[in-house]
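Suppose you are handed a protein chain with no further information: no name, no annotation, nothing but its sequence. What can you learn? This example shows the usual starting point.
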Amino acid sequence: MYIHRSGRFKFKCREDTLDEYVVNEVIKRGDYEKHFKIEPDDRVLDLGGHIGTLACLASRKAKAVLSVEMDKTNFNLLKQNLKLNNCEDVEILNKAVTLEDDETIEYGQNTMKNTGAHSFFIKGGKRAIKEASTISIDTILEEFAPTFIKMDIEGAEKILLPSILDYHPMKFIMEYHHNIIKNLSHYTKVWRKINKMYDNVVGKKPDQVGKNWHSYVYAWDDF
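A reasonable first move is to predict its three-dimensional structure. Written in structure tokens, the prediction is:
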């Protein structure tokens, strides 16, 4: 474990992992604020909290932040990084977000470098089988009422997208994991629906996906 400084933040990162890369992606590159900013009135829902990078950033800007991370190891590091950056006002949940409350699911914990690639759609290989308790996306949306949703949940976006799009947050960012979902027709339907719903959409069109393992999609309404 070591301390990595990025901008005005510092994060505990694990040796021989992509933790530092993820921090730089969010803080230095500003991947989640490329097309719209986190504003003082925003309520930010961070689905796939990892080690707390976006949670720390959003806590300095937004009205409220809820960060949800299913992996216990990542979650413990998330808590430490929030404390390290004096961002302890962030609400955090060690849960897997699904369609049901209070269930237990198994997921594959990636034991290689990418500590953000844990998924309950991939098991076996170089993955340890872990368990997580669940919370439903509808419960979160109803109780937290986010205006800004970021989703990076390794294939589970296919399950949660109907509820999120029905909710229609003003600002929405997701990583769509083609390597896990493996269904271009689903991505095509999602792309068309998002374009009908939002004033602005930026991302790879279905005919631009190619062999990419994931695509960023940004969607937001004119304010």
